[in-house]
Here is the input.
Amino acid sequence: VQVVESGGGLVQPGESLRLSCEATGFTFANYGMSWYRQAPGKGRELVAGITSTGIVTDYPDSVKGRFAISRHRTKATVYLQMNSLKPEDTAVYYCKLRVLSRDYWGQGTQVSVSS
Here is the structure.
């Protein structure tokens, strides 16, 4: 199983970014995919999650109303649309696939928000 994130970068406050995550190497229909982030010196924080049937978990207050997770209809790919980015959103963003009670993590993609 492979999990690969893409789409990170450096943006200014108020701008937007869209992250992508593709999971390959498995064939089970039921799975969940989530986005986490980890800022320097802090623990890993759940940002958003979605099931293979499209059920979205609640967003933490820190990103609610600004971030939105979505999925591709036919493959294990999820997106994280991040709007109105703030400097405190700066972190490495990780994608996690959960299938058959096992977790698979991507390598992470850096998001930096700075003027």
